[in-house]
Amino acid sequence: MAVVVPLVLGLLALADAGLAGFRAATGRNARIDKRAYYLRAARRGLAGGTILLGLVALLVVVTLGSSADPGARYDELVRAGTRMLQVVVPFAALVIVSLLAYWLMPMRESTFVILIGLGPFTLVRPVVVLGAAVWTVLGSADGLAWAVAIAAAVGVLAVEPVVHRRWYRATEGS
């Protein structure tokens, strides 16, 4: 679990970052074939997420490196990460099922999946991320676990607005 928990959290954060880049770009391009446009947007989100995840990892590495007992601190981080996964994994599973349904179903049913799944999930996402951070903080007395949970939540929620401001704000109103 010492490797699995941070790996799963990191992969979920990076997948979310790619989707955040996609969301930042949606509705801003009138071309019919938008595949290259959306792939570039997802790469931008992934790049932003990688940078923010790297900052969280740097916080962990520096703090563990200066700790008197890095093993115990890391174990506490893994416990905190496990609590975060208890909230995030069920939500991610619902999103994945919705995305698969969207991609695999005919157009009319895919539109329905957006209405009942993907749209509301996008609106609820910040609540889930903040809920995961709160659940993590409530289960730990370690200040590092608190700092990492809060920094990770802020980082995940910051990707979309950062990408939007950096690349897509200029297209508003046009």
Q: Would you write up a description of this structure?
A:
The chain has 174 residues and is mainly α. It has one domain (4-171). It has helices spanning 4-25, 35-65, 70-104, 107-138, 143-168. The longest helix is centred in the middle third of the chain and has 35 residues, at 70-104.
Shape: globular
**Number of separate strands:** 0
Q: Helix coverage percent of residues?
A: over 70%
Provide the residue-averaged pLDDT: 91
The helix/strand order is: HHHHH
Residue fraction in strands: under 5%
Measured on Cα atoms, how large is the radius of gyration?
18 Å
Biggest sheet character: none
Give the total of domains.
1
Provide the low-confidence segments as ranges. none
Distance between the termini: 49 Å
Counted by DSSP, the helix tally is 5
Helix- and strand-based class?
Answer: mainly alpha
